[in-house]
Write a structure and sequence with these properties.
By secondary structure, the chain is of the alpha/beta class. It is built from 15 helices and ten strands. It has two domains: 176 residues, 3-Layer(aba) Sandwich (D-Maltodextrin-Binding Protein, domain 2), CATH 3.40.190.10; 151 residues, Periplasmic binding protein-like II (D-Maltodextrin-Binding Protein, domain 2), CATH 3.40.190.10. The protein binds fe (iii) ion.
């Protein structure tokens, strides 16, 4: 009897695929729009295919994927968008290009501070916004964000624009902790300690430490890995070896972290497969592998980061929810403009 059922099922499947080959082919896929390079994702996605039988297709771009999903509207082939920063995850939600995903598996795998309370976005890994400090000119081995406003750092701090999403995340976390008035005072203090006008990206701040232009700089952890292993521009290895990483507020509330995460597209054509992929990416193994690809930390603090990332020190992450940080992003951005942070220090 079993044989008969199996045979009839087989015939039924064959008939369906013959009748509608496109639908059956498409049903076996999940379409991923990703800011992360396909080569970095490949091992993970191959494991997903082996485990679930679902194939993956990736559309990779360096920017504009959210806008693309938006303009494609109901015809968008996107199922899952992989992006970085709470600013971009929250923007996807507010633009209306996401849909909520209800999954006990994801909820069990991802701590609540790293997912949207309405289930529209989920973090997979964290990146910490830390201090790169000159090995030669900075003796101390601990620091706080508050301390960046201390006049002892006058003319010694470098950072990228205050309006960049990474800076806004950090400033929004300060607003969440201390309120607007105190944060304004703090930010003015940091501005007055800058060595130069905010310019360039995170890595160019480390370059400026290497060249002696400043002594400490704000930056995301993973750039240390990208510099240390850079074969295309080997001089970056020298920048990296001129600095040590200080994890701010390690002794009290913890270091500010941001997210690399995922959302399900509002008009995802393969909802079930998209959910399977998101559940897979939330797993312990996937958090580790996804993190390792870019020297990031699994969102679950019980899962170890890769060896290189772990070698920079112990990350004690601020337990503030990224959703609370998102709520203060607008205020943070207004503050940056109000105090003219990007105009640099008073000379
Ligand atoms: Fe980055």
């Amino acid at each position: 009897m079993n044989f008969l059922i199996k045979t009839s099922l087989k015939i039924l499947t064959l008939t369906l695929s013959t009748l509608n080959p496109i639908a059956s082919f498409a049903d076996n896929f999940v379409n991923i729009y990703s800011y992360r390079q396909p080569a970095l994702l490949k091992p993970l996605l191959d494991a997903f295919t082996v485990q679930t039988g679902v194939n993956t297709r990736i559309l990779f771009a360096k920017k504009g994927l959210g806008q693309r999903i938006n303009s494609e509207g109901e015809n968008s082939p996107a199922d899952v968008l992989l992006t970085v920063d709470i600013g971009r995850l929250e923007a996807a939600k507010t633009q209306g290009i996401t849909q909520p995903v209800y999954s006990d598996i994801i909820v069990a795998n991802i701590p609540p501070q790293y997912r949207d309370p309405d289930n529209h976005w989920f973090g997979v890994t964290t990146r910490a916004r830390i201090i790169y400090a000159s090995k030669e000119r900075v003796q101390q081995d601990s620091i706080t964000y508050e301390e960046l406003a201390d006049p002892k750092w006058k003319g010694r701090i470098c950072t990228r624009s205050g309006q960049h999403v990474y800076s806004i995340g950090l400033i929004a976390s300060m607003v969440a902790h201390f309120g607007e008035t105190k944060t304004t005072k703090w930010l003015k203090g940091v501005k007055n300690n800058l060595a130069r006008k905010p310019t360039g990206n995170d890595r160019s701040q480390v370059k400026a430490i290497y060249s002696g232009e400043c002594d400490i700089a704000l930056g995301n952890t993973y750039y240390m890995g990208k510099m240390q292993t850079n074969t295309k521009e080997p001089e970056q290895k020298k920048w990296a070896s001129s600095v040590k990483l200080l994890f701010p507020n390690a002794k009290d509330r913890g270091t500010h972290v941001n997210l690399s995460g995922m959302v399900m597209a509002k008009y995802a054509p393969h909802i079930e497969n998209a959910k399977k992929l998101m559940e897979f990416l939330s797993s312990a193994k996937a958090q580790h592998v996804y993190g390792s690809a870019n020297y990031e930390y699994p969102v679950n603090p019980d899962i170890a980061a890769d060896e290189r990332t772990s070698s920079w020190g112990i990350l004690k992450a601020d337990s503030l929810s990224l959703s609370d940080i998102a709520k203060n992003r607008k205020t943070a951005s207004e503050l940056v403009d109000k105090i003219g942070f990007d105009n640099g220090p008073l000379l």
